[in-house]
Every structure is written in structure tokens, then in C-alpha cells.
Specification:
By secondary structure, the chain is mostly beta strands. Among the domains are: 1-55; 442-523, Immunoglobulin-like (Sandwich); 540-620, Sandwich (Immunoglobulin-like), CATH 2.60.40.10; 625-702, SH3 type barrels. The chain contains three helices and 51 strands. Strands 20-16-17-18-19-45-44-41-42 form a nine-stranded mixed β-sheet, with no helix packed on it. Helix 1 runs antiparallel to helix 2 (25-38). The protein is flat. The N and C termini lie far apart (75 Å).
């Protein structure tokens, strides 16, 4: 009976849509297809089927509309609302945030800390729980959900379905920054007081990662599933790789000019490129988290007076939310320039902008309008309060080529042109007014390379340029080409040379002829700073060996390593530590003198940052040493199978052999031994040795090892595992 009613309801919907589109067959077919393929909800169409389950479009997003007491689901490709859910009465009119990850859709009341869950199949709000105070962070991703109290410093994992606490809470010194969840479900939280990213997973805290000095201005982005920490105080970025290794990048010093909140970064990017924006300098940077390369572009000076949100990237374009104008600035990463702005509300607004499932969404939660963009930058408008069926009766006429809907196009050459036989009088010839000089070039983008710096710019507008030259080039570096013509296909200069330890700024001048025919120039604003280097690649061939002086670690040079490249060597195992500033391709680590399995990690670094790491695991056993027997005159000394002189497990016996050299492998602590006559010969230090073809342990006072026999001798004698 319910199934029959459902089919009847669907048939009624299709009939209604066909009636609405009798005059527009193509649009009608599209709408009918949306009904069939997307399963648009019975709520939207007003079909009274109590048992209906709502199947929303996979490519869509939930948007808050608290002024109407709703959250709405919009279909991205159709740019239509296809589902709605009523907010609890206590949330209406409050600041609402929608947290969505797959089938997990949570509503956060930012004014009260109450969190609710939407059941997308029923379009109902369920499980209302107060999980914190105003400003509570709620996150969902990788099948997990968390709350972060930035003020109290409390972190709690949740069951994303019931919203019940899962596991024990963790405490981190507040205040905390905006958190994020990586591809493995680990929650990363900036803890500026310690200069760390705190980590939390599976209901428990994980070891934090140092990404700056205590008190640093930290921000976090999740790029292609990896955590990226940006330190605006030191102008660095640290990429936490899935392997546990880190890629550290030196950012342009412009980052330090960012205000109290630091540089603006998106919470998440679907690819490996992270856009960074410094509002105070209208500076946009693009960080490639795979290679550490950073390019930088300067926007219009007027941008510095506007209020911006974090930039978002989709496809080849970066979208910069401007809340002063209620619009998005668009930066084309291929053309390396700012394009038009896209209006969202057209007035000062609080903008929510995010990327989900290959689409970018932008809206003011308090406004009825929203926009959705695809990867090519095509814009569609969404009416959040519209509850009509997709493709409703208000259809716009299709525009005609060359003009508006009415067909009024441009002149196609049908008018009469002048000719020698034209009898009409001609206007008098006037001397043209002096031409205005061209405007200065703009849109300077600087990109570092291995020993190079590339400067791209936008040509001047107006006037008659005669060419362009690069300014502020110091002695030493070479510029190619020396000048760029006014009709060049690529407006680019390449600077070769320079020092990696130094930042450079450039300007571009347009040359033209003034009214007296003299050569004159107009010069652009300075570029962002750039270095002639990028973080080096990973070393190769890492290997470790045990020597009498410690562990020797060697490797092959990193790809792209230049003079001045140094290496950081870190090790873990029975002994852990690190050493920085290693100039060559090998180092001997005197800190390592214990047998066991070690992992060595080598990272190349220069002034541009530290590249990807290379690792190797090695089983190290210290070299054998030769020492003489002592205190064994006219007596027996017993070698045991274990480090226990009290055990009945002798493997060999030495008799009256003072001064005889024996092979010693290592030292170790064992079962305490009490000498029957001399307390100075009591202790727990043993020597592992080989004698007469047998290998075992002997109490340490019988072998003349360096130093006091009761303590480890240290290198060159290694300790047993």
C-alpha cells in the first residue's frame, strides 16, 4: 500500500512538472530527469507520503538559513534547493554553522554551544545536545567527529550519530586555534602557547608536533588529507606527511606583516596547493605542499582596506571572500592575475565560503541568496528560500547571440559607410589631444626556482608603451630578456643568480614617449619578496653503520642540492635525537653506542626550507674490542650463558690467565653479584665476550675495560641491547 502510494506520488510530481514545461520541452525533460535521477524530496514537492525517505543529490551542500528557521540542501549542478529541515525553535535567529561530511550533518548553535544532527533520509533534526559554550568548534571528517573548546582547551571525540562522548577528553593549554581532521581521522589543533600542533585520535591524545616557537601565531590547513601548519611569526609552513616526516617551507617575509590573527588560510583544500592571504599587504601566496615551492602575487592596494575571509581554491582559480563588498575576488593561477569579482550579496556581509565535492559554495547565512561555482568558474545562483520545484514557472528567455533577449545585437555592417561620392559634408579634421601616458604595470607575481626568480606582470593599460624593463635588480644576477616588447606574448622576466639567503623585491617599469618625444617611465609597486631557491628534494641511499666512534650515517645528495645546502639527521631506537646543520653527506653520531635497531631520517634544507625526508632502518651492533683479563691469578673465572653469575649456566671457564687478551662484544647490566670477600668486586656490570669458541657473559671486574668497571665504559665499547 505504501509502495503504491509512493509510485502514485512520483507520478503526480512528474505530471506536474510536464504541465509546467509544455512550452519548453528541453527544460521540462531536464527537470523530469532530475526528479528521476536525484530523487528530489517529497517535502519539496508537497507530496503527502508520511513514510517517504528523502534521497538528496550526492553533489550538493547544506546551507544555514536561520532567519527562516531552516537549513536547506541545495543541488549543485541544478542550483536548486532539493530539501529542507526545520531548526529547533531555540536555534532560530542564532548564528548557525553546518558541519557536513558524507552522511554526517551537524548543526552547531555558535551562540549557545548546542549541537544537533540532521538525518538526511528523514529531513529531521535529531539528538540535540549542549556540548559546550559559545564559540565551540565542532568538526567531522574521515568518519569521526570532535569538539574543541578553544577557551577551556578541552578536546573530546564524539559518536557522530548519537553525539555522545567517545573516549576520554584531552586537555591542551588554551587558547586553541582552528582545528582540522586529516585523511586518517587524526584531529590536529594549533596550540600557540607551546608552538605545537596537538594531535588526538581514537579517543586519546597523540604526541604533539612542534611547528613554531611558544607564542607563535599559528594557523592550520588540511591539504589533500595532510596537516599544514603556518607560523606567521616566523614566516614558515610545516607539512605533516602521512609517513610522519615533515616538510618545512620558508615563506616570504610578507607573512610577518599579517595582523594579530596571522595569515589567512583555508581550513581544507582538496588538492595539494594551499592559498595564503595577507590582507595588510593584499598579498596572495600559493604553497605547493608536495614540493615546498611558493609563488606570490600582489593585489590592488585598495584590497588592504577591506575585510576578508580565508581564500579557497577550486581548479585553477583562487576565490577570496571580501566581506566589505559581499563578493569574491577571483585569481587565475594559470594567467597569474586577479580577474573580475563575483557578487554574492552585493553589500557588506558575513560570508561563508567552502569547497565540497568539486564545487565552491558562497553565501551569507542571514541572506536568501547563495552562489555555487564549478571547477571552470561557471557561476550559478541559488535561491535558498525557494521551495518551488526545480525549473519552476519563472523562466528567463534564452539570450540570443550578439544581443539581449529581444535580439538587439551589435551593428553587423548593414549601415552605409562614407565614400568619395558621398555628397554629405564631412566634419572638420581636428588635431588629437595629447595622449595620456600608460598606467604602471600591475599584478606582479614572483616565483622562485633553483637559482632563478621569475617575475610575471600584467601589461600597462592606456597610452602607447614602447616596452618594459625590470627594476631593482642588484649587481650580480642577470635578467633575461633585458626588456619586453609592448606586444609580447609573455610578460615575464627571469632573474638568474642571487643568494638563497637573501630576499629580493622587483618592480617593472613601462617605457613610453612623452609629449616632447623623450623616453619616460612609469614604475609598478614592488613585488612580494622572493628567493632564488626552493626547498631541496629528498636525499637517497641513506645507510647507517656501527663504528668505534658511534653510528656513521651516510647518504647521497638531495636532488636540486646547491652550495649552502645542509642536512638534518634524526634517529630513533634505543637512543633518539637529531643533529642539524650537517654540511656534507655523512656524519658520525657519538650519541649512539647501544646495540639495536635504529631508524635514520635525513632531510636536506636551505634558506627556502627543508625538503622531503628519506629514511632507512638498520640493525646496529658495535664492533668487537680486545681487552685483557685481570684479577684472575691462580683462580677460575666463569663465563655464563646469561648476565647472572649466580646462575648454573656456565659455558666456559678461564683459569689463571691474567693479562690474556680476549674478544669483548659489549657491556650490559645483569643480576647483582656479591663477592664473598671483597665488596669492591660486587656489582651488576657484565661483559659479553667470546673465549675458547664459547660466547657468554662474565662479571665485569675480571676484564680490564676503560674506566670504573661498575659503569659503562662508553665508546669505543658499545652497550648490549
Amino acid at each position: 500500500m505504501g509502495r503504491a502510494a509512493g509510485h502514485a506520488g512520483q507520478g503526480g510530481v512528474r505530471g506536474t512538472v510536464r504541465a509546467l514545461f509544455r512550452r519548453d520541452r528541453v527544460t521540462g525533460q531536464i527537470a523530469i530527469g532530475l526528479v528521476g535521477v536525484l530523487g528530489v524530496t517529497a517535502l519539496v514537492y508537497g507530496v503527502g507520503v508520511a513514510s517517504a525517505r528523502y534521497d538528496l543529490a550526492d553533489v550538493g551542500a547544506w546551507l544555514a538559513a536561520p532567519a527562516k528557521g531552516l537549513v536547506v540542501h541545495a543541488n549543485g549542478p541544478a542550483a536548486k534547493v532539493d530539501g529542507k529541515a526545520a531548526l529547533p525553535a531555540a536555534m532560530r535567529g542564532h548564528r548557525i554553522q553546518v558541519v557536513q561530511d558524507g552522511s554526517t550533518v551537524l548543526i552547531v548553535d555558535l551562540d549557545t554551544g548546542v549541537v544537533s544532527r540532521i538525518d538526511p533520509s528523514q529531513l529531521k533534526v535529531e539528538q540535540n545536545r549542549r556540548l559546550g559554550a559559545a564559540g565551540l568548534q565542532v568538526l567531522a571528517g574521515a568518519g569521526r567527529a570532535y569538539t574543541v573548546d578553544s577557551v577551556k582547551g578541552t578536546i573530546q571525540q564524539l559518536d557522530p550519530y548519537t553525539l555522545a562522548a567517545w573516549g576520554s577528553p584531552a586537555q591542551v593549554t588554551p587558547p586553541l586555534g582552528q582545528a582540522g581532521i586529516d585523511a586518517r581521522g587524526t584531529l590536529w589543533v594549533p596550540a600557540p602557547q607551546h608552538g605545537q600542533l596537538a594531535a588526538f585520535r581514537d579517543g586519546a591524545a597523540r604526541p604533539p608536533v612542534a611547528v613554531g616557537r611558544p607564542g607563535a601565531r599559528l594557523a592550520l590547513a588540511i591539504a589533500a588529507g595532510e596537516a599544514v601548519a603556518v607560523d606567521s611569526t616566523a614566516a614558515t609552513a610545516t607539512v605533516i606527511k602521512e609517513s610522519g616526516a615533515h616538510l618545512t617551507v620558508t615563506l616570504p617575509s610578507t607573512v610577518r606583516a599579517a595582523g594579530r590573527g596571522g595569515v589567512l588560510v583555508p581550513a581544507r583544500t582538496e588538492g595539494r596547493t594551499v592559498p595564503l592571504f595577507v590582507p595588510e599587504r593584499a598579498s596572495l601566496m600559493l604553497l605547493d605542499t608536495a614540493t615546498g615551492r611558493v609563488s606570490s602575487s600582489s593585489g590592488a592596494t585598495s584590497m588592504a582596506r577591506h575585510r576578508f575571509r580565508a581564500p579557497q581554491i577550486l581548479g585553477s582559480k583562487v576565490y577570496l571572500p571580501d566581506e566589505t563588498a559581499g563578493a569574491l575576488w577571483v585569481y587565475d593561477t594559470v594567467a597569474q592575475r586577479f580577474e573580475r569579482t563575483i557578487s554574492v550579496t552585493g553589500r557588506p556581509s558575513t560570508l561563508e565560503v567552502f569547497v565540497k565535492d568539486g564545487l565552491l559554495w558562497a553565501h551569507d547565512p542571514r541572506d536568501h541568496r547563495a552562489i555555487v561555482l564549478d571547477g571552470r568558474g561557471a557561476v550559478k545562483r541559488v535561491e535558498k528560500y525557494d521551495d518551488r520545484v526545480p525549473g519552476g514557472p519563472n523562466r528567463r528567455p534564452l539570450p540570443r547571440p550578439g544581443g539581449g533577449a529581444g535580439g538587439g545585437g551589435a551593428d553587423q555592417g548593414g549601415g552605409r559607410g562614407g565614400s568619395e561620392s558621398d555628397p554629405r559634408p564631412r566634419p572638420p579634421v581636428r588635431t588629437p589631444a595629447p595622449q595620456e601616458p600608460p598606467l604602471a604595470p600591475g599584478g606582479l607575481t614572483v616565483t622562485p626556482g633553483a637559482g632563478t626568480m621569475r617575475v610575471d606582470f600584467q601589461p600597462s593599460v592606456g597610452g602607447t608603451p614602447t616596452g618594459y624593463v625590470l627594476k631593482d635588480v642588484p649587481a650580480g644576477p642577470a635578467v633575461s630578456p633585458p626588456s619586453v616588447g609592448p606586444g609580447a606574448g609573455a610578460y615575464t622576466f627571469t632573474v638568474t643568480g642571487g643568494e638563497c639567503s637573501r630576499e629580493y623585491r622587483f618592480r617593472v617599469a613601462v617605457r613610453y614617449r612623452d609629449a616632447q618625444g623623450r623616453t619616460a617611465e612609469r614604475v609598478s609597486a614592488p613585488s612580494d619578496p622572493v628567493r632564488p631557491c626552493v626547498p631541496p628534494g629528498a636525499p637517497s641511499g641513506v645507510r647507517g653503520t656501527a663504528t668505534a666512534s658511534g653510528a656513521r650515517v651516510a647518504w647521497s645528495p638531495a636532488a636540486g642540492a646547491e652550495p649552502g645546502t645542509t642536512y638534518r639527521v634524526a634517529w630513533s631506537g634505543p637512543v633518539s635525537g637529531s643533529r642539524t646543520g650537517v654540511a656534507g653527506t655523512s656524519v658520525t653520531l657519538g650519541q649512539i653506542g647501544i646495540n639495536g635497531r635504529y631508524t635514520f631520517t635525513v632531510t636536506a634544507a636551505n634558506e627556502a626550507g627543508a625538503g622531503n625526508a628519506a629514511s632507512a632502518a638498520e640493525q646496529l651492533t658495535g664492533p668487537n674490542r680486545s681487552y685483557k683479563v685481570e684479577r684472575n691469578g691462580n683462580s677460575n673465572a666463569y663465563i655464563h650463558k646469561t648476565a647472572n653469575s649466580n646462575a648454573d649456566d656456565r659455558v666456559a671457564t678461564m683459569h689463571d690467565n691474567n693479562g690474556e687478551s680476549v674478544t669483548v662484544h659489549c657491556q650490559t647490566k645483569g643480576v647483582p653479584y656479591t663477592h664473598p670477600r671483597d665488596k669492591n668486586l660486587s656489582g651488576d656490570m657484565y661483559v659479553k665476550m667470546t673465549y675458547g669458541g664459547a660466547t657468554g657473559y662474565i662479571i665485569g671486574y675480571l676484564i680490564n675495560t676503560p674506566g670504573d668497571w661498575k659503569a659503562y665504559a662508553g665508546l669505543p665499547l658499545w652497550r648490549c641491547k
